[in-house]
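G., the chain you wanted modeled:
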Amino acid sequence: MNNELVFKKSSYSGQEPNCVEVADLPLGAAIRDSKHPDRGHLPFPAAEWDAFLASARAFQA
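Predicted structure as tokens:
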């Protein structure tokens, strides 16, 4: 079983190196700083991640 997380960044980031990357977890998401991927990541439970996304989408409206 491969335990490697696959991090991705928003298409809005383009070639910008200063952004946050996200990886899917079985029960949530993990985020890390794209400038320092070797420093680890922060895991978020699904409920907290969903609340964050809902809040971010509200700002886009």
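The beta strands are 20-25, 28-33, 42-45.

Shout if anything looks off.
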